[in-house]
Structure formats: C-alpha cells, structure tokens
Amino acid sequence: MLQNLQTAVLKPYFKRKYIEAGCDEAGRGCFAGPVCAAAVILPKNFYHPVLNDSKQLTPEQRETLRVYIEKKALHYAVAMVDNDEIDSINILKASFKAMHLALEQLPVEPALILVDGNRFTTWRNVQHQCIIKGDGIYASIAAASILAKTYRDKYMQQLHDEFPHYNWAQNKGYGTVEHRRAIESHGLCRYHRKSFNILSAQLEINYELQEEIN
C-alpha cells in the first residue's frame, strides 16, 4: 500500500505533437558505484497519482511505480557507466554518456529529449530541452528518475553483498558519515571513485569533528 501520497500533478508532455523521451540520472554525487540513467517514452495520457521526483518518494513508492512505469511506458531503457569510466572521463561526461546509452537502447528515436538539469550533450542531433528540477515537472522525466534510482539501488545492493562493511545497502554509495567512517577504517575498494578525492574529504571531516570535540 502506498503511503505519503503526493499531490504533485506533473505535465504529461512538453510538446504534444512530438515523441518525447524523458531522461534523468541517479548516483551522480556518490562516492562509489556507477552513475545510472534512464530514458522513458510515455503515452500522452500517462498518469499515476503518486508520480513525482524519485527523491520525494519512499522506496516502497518507487518500487511500485517502477513496475507501473515498465508496464505502461511505450518504451524505456536503463544504462550505467561504472566508476572506472567516471574516473577516466569525469562524472559530468559519464552522466551524459549513461543517458546517451539509454537513448540508444530505445527501439524508436524520439523527436525531442527532455533532460533533468541545465546541461546536456546533444545526442544524434535530436532536439533536447534542459529543465531544471524537471523530474518534479514532467511525467517522463519523473519516470526516468524512478527507473534510474531503482535500478541503481538494486545494483548497489549487489555490491553491498561483496563489500558489506560500507553498508551500501543503506547509503547506496553516498558520502554519509557512516560511509566515510567505513572508508577511514577499511580504505577504498575497487568500486570507489578515486577521482572524487574521497580520502582528502575524509581527512577534512575528521579535522572538523576533532575541532568540535575540543
């Protein structure tokens, strides 16, 4: 049963005459794991009363919506770029690449791409529209945010089984205090993003904590 019912009414499309694909990513700010992106083409009459930006939903709501989106969407695809490639090309380019990879998996080419955020790299010369906080405005972007988030969370659960001491099942690779302390105790593993200067950030946190203690 869904809890914390959302009241957001999202727009069903940007331009009705176009086949639109909504795109969003998850995991851009994490210390570990891949960045994941989804591309979703919804029917123009798509509606769910709880659909919203994935960050505004509970895990249970996201999972329920994932099933609903996969059933009702005209087309959808999810892609990931791993931490090694993130370190190689930087997280911004990796986020764009993950979106491009998702778009390439769609069986039809959209005429317009709606992207959450303020920047995007053109894909196949297809027109795109960047929309700040678009995952709380347009249904297709919200749907993409939910698929990207749920697929990445499931993947991080698998990585947790390999390295349980970081508790990725709970923090999903984000830089929580718990995750930072685990890094301090166990060091970095092969799934951490080395280009994020995580150890330097940890030393700074430790210094701040010591100052508070003193």
From TrEMBL:
Pfam families xrefs: RNase_HII
UniProt entry tagged with the keyword rRNA processing: no
Co-factor note (free text): Manganese or magnesium. Binds 1 divalent metal ion per monomer in the absence of substrate. May bind a second metal ion after substrate binding.
Annotated EC: 3.1.26.4
Residues involved in a divalent metal cation binding: D24, E25, D116
Major localization listed first in the record, in broad terms: cytoplasm
UniProt signal peptide: none
GO molecular function: manganese ion binding; RNA binding; RNA-DNA hybrid ribonuclease activity
Cofactor: Mn(2+); Mg(2+)
Transmembrane segments: none
Residues in RNase H type-2 domain copies: 18-208
Catalytic activity from the UniProt record: Endonucleolytic cleavage to 5'-phosphomonoester
UniProt record similarity statement: Belongs to the RNase HII family.
The protein, known as: Ribonuclease HII
